[in-house]
Design a protein that fits this description.
InterPro entries: Mucin_vWF_Thrombospondin_sf (IPR050780), Ser_inhib-like_sf (IPR036084), VWF/SSPO/ZAN-like_Cys-rich_dom (IPR014853), VWF_type-D (IPR001846). Keywords: Disulfide bond, Glycoprotein. It comes from Cardinalis cardinalis. With about 325 residues, the protein is an alpha+beta fold. About 15% of the residues lie in helices and about 25% in strands. It contains 6 helices and 18 strands. The protein has helices spanning about 225-230, 245-250, 250-260, 270-275, 280-290, 295-315, and strands at about 15, 20, 30, 35, 40-45, 45-50, 55-60, 65-70, 75, 80-85, 90-95, 110-115, 120-130, 135, 160-165, 165-170, 175-180, 185-190. The strands form 5 sheets. The protein has a 7-stranded antiparallel sheet with strand order 10-9-8-18-17-16-15, covered by helices on one side. The radius of gyration is 23 Å and the shape is globular. The protein folds into 3 domains: about 15-60, no CATH class; about 65-230, Protein Transport Mog1p, Chain A (3-Layer(aba) Sandwich); about 245-315, no CATH class. Helix 3 packs across helix 5 and helix 5 runs antiparallel to helix 6.
Length: about 325
């Protein structure tokens, strides 16, 4: 290539990317398209990274795993596998009793999915948490979106049971945490002690996404429908035989859904795009916005965008996307 005229740094100094020359010990680091000076610290999940001579040096703590279930049948496993499963039944989301005859389980979390809309897609309506004593978060009203909370008997394992911001949080002393937005989004957090010891729709938490579709009988499957069907609680429930495509069934909603959901791929979330792939979240958003056709359509759209925003926060990309016109949150009168 031909020469390009310009300034270069003197011998022994380095270009700091910001128009200056510095010694190697003062080289900055880049994260999320932003420059950080030597000695600056950032949080990545549960670890702290420090900028040293232009390179990030991070602590190596093993972090809690998070499984997300949201909207109409979207799952993001502990190991980061993203898939859709629209079954109308009760299913094992995750548990630590996985078929080993010599082991016993300390917890089980069951999700009850019901149709939400006329296309056949399903939303999580109730969550049951077994900690020796059953915890039950459910909605008994006829609306497709959870609105009412019911908690039955306290367990001696329970540490915290209360509201944090928009979420209801239930934490147990055995390293299991359940976070619910009182609508259609559920986060399940597990301590690192459970790595490789759990099973269900949230996968096996062994840091490998390619073996997350392990059925109840211990076989690996590539088909999310076969995998999901194997974790139903009642054999009386029908198997899911085909993937539902609500935008094909409701084509008049498709252009509205694509227009609304385009925020995920827009400049608003630009800082996050290089950290968390927006495509599966955009597709899930369009799917939900098409399918929620019996009320709650804005709720479905907002939950889908919030799910992507939540993953961005985990990746240290904080995005302010809510506005008075887009999914506003109204604080309580005295808040």
């Amino acid at each position: 290539t031909e020469c390009v005229s310009g300034c270069v740094c003197p011998e022994g100094l380095f270009d700091d990317g910001r128009g200056g020359c510095v010694e190697q010990k003062d080289c900055p680091c880049i994260h999320n398209n932003e420059w950080y000076s030597s000695g600056d610290k950032i949080k990545v999940d549960c670890n702290t990274c420090t900028c040293q001579k232009g390179v990030w040096k991070c602590t190596e703590d093993v972090c809690y795993g998070t499984c997300m279930i949201y909207g109409s049948g979207h799952y993001n496993t502990f190991d980061g596998k993203f898939y859709d499963f629209d079954g109308s039944c009760e299913y094992v989301a995750t548990q630590d009793f996985c078929g080993d005859k010599n082991s016993s389980g300390s917890f089980s979390i069951i999700t009850e999915n019901v149709p939400c809309g006329t296309t056949g897609v399903t939303c999580s309506k109730a969550i049951k948490m077994f900690l020796g004593v059953m915890k039950n978060l459910s909605n008994r009203s006829a609306t497709p979106l959870p609105a009412i909370l019911e908690v039955i008997p306290e367990s001696e394992l329970l540490v915290q049971n209360g509201t944090v911001g928009l979420y209801l949080v239930i934490e147990a002393s055995n390293g299991v945490m359940l976070i619910w937005d009182k609508k259609t989004t559920v986060f399940i957090k597990l301590s690192p002690d459970y790595k490789g010891k759990v099973c269900g729709l949230c996968g096996n938490f062994d840091d490998k996404a390619n073996n997350d579709f392990t059925t109840r009988s211990g076989l690996q499957d590539n088909n999310p429908l076969n995998f999901g069907n194997s974790w139903k609680q009642s054999p009386m429930c029908p198997d899911v035989t085909q993937e539902i495509k609500p935008c094909d069934l409701k084509p008049h909603r498709k252009s509205w859904a694509e227009k609304e959901c385009s925020i995920i791929q827009s400049e608003v979330f630009k800082i996050c795009h290089s950290k968390v792939d927006p495509l599966p979240y955009y597709e899930a958003c369009v799917h939900d916005a098409c399918s929620c056709d019996s009320g709650g359509d804005c709720e479905c759209f907002c939950s889908a965008v919030a799910a992507y925003a939540q993953e961005c926060i985990k990746a240290e990309a904080c995005v302010f996307w809510r506005t008075p016109d887009i999914c506003p949150i109204f604080c309580d009168y005295y808040n």
